[in-house]
Every structure is written in C-alpha cells, then in structure tokens.
Design a protein that fits this description.
Blueprint: E1 2-6, E2 9-12, E3 23-25, E4 36-39, E5 42-43, E6 50-56, E7 62-64, E8 77-80, E9 82-87, E10 95-100, E11 103-106, E12 117-121, E13 127-129, E14 136-137, E15 144-150, E16 157-159, E17 162-163, E18 169-173, E19 175-180
Parallel strand pairs: 1-8, 2-9, 10-18, 11-19
Antiparallel strand pairs: 1-3, 4-7, 5-6, 6-9, 10-12, 13-16, 14-15, 15-19, 16-17
Length: about 200
C-alpha cells in the first residue's frame, strides 16, 4: 500500500488564491528501492476567507523505478485530501466606506434623488466594489431635508467573479437631500382713475 496526502496551507486574505502543490508519502508505506513519484496533479484553490479541500486528482499519479519504467500498478494507492484555509484575522483593518452623495435644488414639485456615491479605502489585489449593485435610496419633494442612504447589504466587493465582501469591513455614510423654497415676487396691480 501507498498513501499520498495532498498538502495543506494557510494564509491571511490578500486578494490572491491560495494553492499548494505539495504532497507527502506516508512514512510507514515507503516507496520500494529507487521507485519514485514521476508525476502527480493536485487541484485546489481558495481565494475568499474560508476553507476547501486540496485534492490529488485520481489517476494522475505515476510511479517509476530507477530505470524510468512505470511501476504504478505495483502499488495499492490511497489518496488523502489536504485543506486550504484563508484566514480573516485582519478584517477590521480592511475598511471600505461607501458614502452617498448629497443634492440640493429649488422646489419644483418633483422628487429630488441622487443615486451617486463615493468609495474610499484600500483594496487588495484586484478587489473592487461592484458599483452596479450599490443601492442609494432617498427622496425629497417638498421644502426641507432628508437622508440619502446607502443600503449596506447592497455593497459587494468582487475579485473577478468571486465575492470577497467577507474580507472587508463595510461602512456607509448618509448625505442630505435638500429642497429650498422657490422665490416668488408678487406685485400688486396698478389701476389709474380720474380724481373724484
């Protein structure tokens, strides 16, 4: 028998995938003579915080002897998985703030809205806010002010097609929507007449 175990690896989130092509051979089941692993394929990748299996692909292991002859069929091979873990210990340090933009206008009977926003903070390797999904809600029709608010649940940080929002601390800030009074000048009518 021969047991091969895919390597395990751990790192803090940095915006790049974690992989490991390492493997180990069970020390109690050593390869015989000059036999060695000629080829092996290991698949596994973890980008966002979390864990997943690192696996040796079944059928990818080829063993050869000192003469380069295949001896794979002479072994009963068992494959074991490793684990790839991306930690999130520094999430509190990775702060991204999404702030709604303010707006102001004179009263005209229509609603004042502003869906624009600003993003501040430092992103890691290729991470970015999915701006199309950010929702800013607020409406002011009559004279006065109200809040223009970013829906925090609509803020998603993507690395390519992978959602890595969990790796960041998301903060939102409101802004004001202000409608001011429309100035109107009223002039009394003039009406001349003959003195009586």
């Amino acid at each position: 028998p021969l047991t091969l175990t895919a390597g395990s690896n751990t790192k803090e989130y940095d915006g790049t995938p974690l992989t490991s092509n390492a493997y180990t051979v069970d020390e109690k089941e050593k390869l015989q003579g000059q036999d060695r692993v000629a080829s092996i394929r290991i698949e596994g990748s973890q980008l966002a915080p979390g864990s997943r299996d690192n696996e040796i692909v079944k059928g990818s292991v080829e063993l050869v002897n000192g003469a380069g002859q295949s001896v794979t069929d002479n072994y009963d091979i068992t494959l074991k998985k490793g684990t790839l873990t991306v930690t999130n210990d520094k999430k509190a340090e990775r702060v991204i703030t999404v702030k709604a933009n303010p707006a102001e206008k004179l009263y005209d009977g229509t609603s004042l809205t502003n869906g624009d926003f600003q993003v501040t903070g430092t992103f890691l390797n290729g991470d970015a806010v999915d701006r199309a999904k950010v929702q800013v809600t607020g409406s002011q029709t009559f004279v006065g002010s109200s809040k223009n608010t970013v829906d925090a649940s609509s803020v998603h940080i993507m690395n390519g097609k992978v959602d890595v929002t969990e790796a960041y601390t998301i903060k939102t800030e409101d802004a004001d929507l202000t409608v001011t009074a429309q100035p109107i000048t009223l002039t009394a009518a003039s009406a001349p007449k003959v003195y009586d």
